[in-house]
Amino acid sequence: MFTVRNAFRRSSRLFENNILRNGEVHQAWISTGPQQQHGTFYEFRTYNIRPEKNAAFLKLTDEKIGLRTAHSELLGYWSVEYGGLNQVFHIWKYESYAQRAAVRASLARDPVWIEEYISKAMPMLTSQDNEVNYLVPWCKVERPPKEGGVYELASFQMRPGGPAIWGHAFQAAVSVHSATCYGHLVGVFHSEFGQLNKVNALWWYESPDQRAAARHTAHGDARVVAAVRESVSYLMSQTNKLLFPCPYSPLK
């Protein structure tokens, strides 16, 4: 079973043994290579909704989402509560780029999908954005211990150079937060298309207040402070969103 503490120890040994062997770069212990070879990737989609259409869009999606999930796997669908107004954020899982292309082609030929959802939903939106992400090799998607909480998507824009440069420090910072139970780590994703050198960490909390309390305690924890201090030396910027799962979201 995956634990962030054991993963951190293993990754530290790999970093020492492989990156600095004989003073030369021998192997990037965390890179896009393992993820690409595995094939599975996650498409992050963010829709901005016209303010006056927010309720109508959510109602329509609630009624018609089955038309979309019949074609490919939905990991989660959320309404953004803080960090973006009138937004929804959703994650779709694909086994390959060929599969995604086939899904998109199938949707384009689906008259029910077009007539009952797309033709009604698109006028309600002001913009759409998407990113392709891979799970980092040292974690997998971990469902929350129970339903009914909230999610935080924390996005970190790292310095150019890729995970071979900053991966070990970032993993240490995430690992210590999870190992000390300041939040339930759902998954860590590294961007492949969109903004490069970006890492997205998806966390679960029982409530916004529980998240606030955990953050307050973590900021006084010497273990967290030490790990974060090293990671931020590679950090350019960061943003976050607090997400409320929609009723039809597999991750609730």
TrEMBL record:
Transmembrane parts of this sequence: none
GO BP terms in the entry: mitophagy
Gene Ontology CC entries for this record: mitochondrion
The NIPSNAP domain, residue ranges: 42-140, 151-250
One Pfam family matching this protein: NIPSNAP
Similarity comment: family membership: Belongs to the NipSnap family.
Name of the protein in question: NIPSNAP domain-containing protein
Species annotation: Esox lucius (Northern pike)
